[in-house]
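Protein modeling request. Please complete all fields; requests missing the sequence field cannot be processed.
Requester role: graduate student
Desired output: 3D structure, token encoding
Chains: 1
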Amino acid sequence: MITIDHHIAKEESMHPKATGEFTSLLHDLALSIRIISREVRRAGINDILGFARTSNIHGEKQQKLDKYANEIIKKTMSQSGHVCAFASEEEEEIVMVGHNKKSKYIVLFDPLDGSSNIDVNITVGTIFGIYRRAENADDSVCDMKDILQPGYKLITAGYALYGSSTMMVYTTGNGVHSFTYDPTIGEFLLSQANIKIPKFGFYYSFNEGNYFLVEEKIRKYLDFIKTPSDDKKYPHILRYIATLNADLHRLLHYGGIYIYPANTKNPGGKLRLVYEVNPLAFILEQAGGRATDGSRRILEIVPDNIHQKTPLFMGSPDNMDVLESFISD
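Delivered output (329 residues):
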């Protein structure tokens, strides 16, 4: 019966110079997830299903719950005074939190990933990543160089799933741990420690509607993994939820591969690097998997804007080896 609070405190105790600020930040994050979970569960009753008659920076229609979750995270995580800026899928620009030069952290998030699934009661989630400000942070207010950091500099990353139960999965660079929310006691309880992805899996996740929009070498790979083989490794089984962190959650437990390549409609890719892909790639690597854009390690890409998009290929090591044998130039 290890609560998330106990787990966070234990991780902090491993760092003698810890000030408690980062721990406070994680507590605020867990609180925001509990609040969002409550509203997701009561969405139909509280009349916050459906569209909000507004669109985000990507031209996508915003759901009412998108906007609600976005505001909850900003308000909850602003109260400690430790955050200097937010970057969100639902915000066109960086959201600055005052001008406190001593605020050390930047929070990046997709408040409600998979929002097209909300109205049909399919799993949705929250994705988050936290950076420490760049060097010499005490000498100036937060600026863009603090936000546009490569993913390998994340100090924590995680996601929440609002499905048959509410789960929070996160890493601070010391393994991946999942917690399940028990609403009867109002606590997240450790359900699995040190998650490791299988080296090989029999599942693949891909939007098959895009088959004829992707490059020929991608189509050849897809044809290969769908063709029966003598060693029984193929065909792979299609599993695609269209909630990115839910697809990753399945991947972590069962292994396999997830691909969202560039295509003729989205030549630069569709998924957002800063607040969607980087946090999930950080988690995947901590669990022993790999994530690339087809040629580069995701976590080494230096973003040039907060809404930058990218192709994504991620999965078990052996599955990634097979993929790369098809797509490497």
